[in-house]
Specification:
The chain has helices at 31-49, 57-60, 64-67, 70-74, 78-93, 119-135, 150-166, 168-171, 189-206, 218-232; strands spanning 2-8, 20-26, 97-103, 142-146, 181-183, 237-239, 242-244, 247-250. Helix 1 packs antiparallel against helix 5 and helix 5 (78-93) packs parallel to helix 10. The longest helix has 19 residues, at 31-49. By secondary structure, it is an alpha/beta fold. It is built from 10 helices and 8 strands. The mean pLDDT is 92. It starts with a strand and ends in a 9-residue tail after the last strand.
Length: 259
């Protein structure tokens, strides 16, 4: 099993109020089908607007920012709405499990040393480990991140290694392969799905759609419909009388800070 992790927003005082990290769990045998479907959606989109020469980079890569903004969903190119609908229909029909951490924006920069894995990542790993234990016995999970700068990739890999080998919690997660793979989001279908899900959940929570209906706003109604698809694909469980949510909100007090 691959666990594709991507984010929308960053947990930083100057970034979005509800940054989101998403983990999309896909069986290895399904990746080829997903790649073929996303390629087909991309080709249909190119054909509908007259070819790839007119596309921006984010449109060529199938980025959520190009297809899920208000302008994209309600704008003059219906093909963007068709692409977004196609991706979400693909997710609806996949045998996939989705976990997410919806964070509260911190008031000050969080700790970014290479010796500590922040809570949002540890909680996603906890959910992946439980998923395999309870529903996917015998499988192993490989964690895959959208590649960043070389220095950031190295830092994040050290954070994961420190967690897996230096903490009791990490050592107990024997169903997850230690270490992280970094890939190019332009050519990795699982990261594209995680990118879509993270963007949708960030807008969903920033607009308070978990508490109220999007009355009279077709864009937010679309975001809510997409978020409902994601919620249908998560995995919640009970343990010792406590409910563990596959999509969980996380207060700023759960970050580790420099002090």
């Amino acid at each position: 099993m691959f666990v594709y992790i991507d984010e929308s927003g960053h947990p930083h005082p100057n970034d979005h109020p509800r940054p989101v990290d998403v983990g999309v769990c896909l069986k290895r045998e399904d990746v080829r089908h997903i790649a073929g479907a996303l390629h087909r959606f991309s080709e249909d989109f190119r054909a509908s607007i007259g070819g790839s020469a007119t596309l921006r980079r984010d449109e060529r890569e199938g980025k959520a920012t190009a297809f899920l903004s208000r302008k994209a969903i309600l704008g003059r190119w219906p093909a963007k709405r068709v692409y977004a609908d196609s991706v979400m229909d693909l997710i609806r029909n996949l045998d996939v499990t989705i976990f997410a951490m919806v964070m509260e924006r911190p008031d000050r920069p969080i700790y970014r040393g290479d010796d500590f894995l922040q809570t949002q990542h540890r909680w996603i790993l906890e959910r992946v480990d439980t998923l395999i234990e309870r529903k996917e016995t015998g499988r192993m999970a490989t964690v895959v991140f959208d590649g960043r700068s070389p220095s950031e990739n190295i830092r994040l890999d050290k954070c994961f290694s420190s967690f897996f080998f230096r903490t009791a919690e990490g050592r107990a997660m024997t169903r997850i392969v230690p270490g992280v793979l970094f890939v190019d989001s332009e050519i990795t279908p699982g990261i594209k799905l995680a990118d879509f899900c993270a963007y949708i959940l960030r807008v969903y929570y920033e607009q308070g759609l978990d508490r109220q209906e999007p009355r009279g706003d077709p864009y937010l109604a679309t975001i809510k419909r997409y978020a409902d698809i994601i919620r249908q694909k998560t995995f919640d469980w009970d343990e010792d009388g406590v409910r563990f949510w596959g999509i969980r909100t996380m207060g700023k007090d759960h970050f580790r800070y420099a002090e």
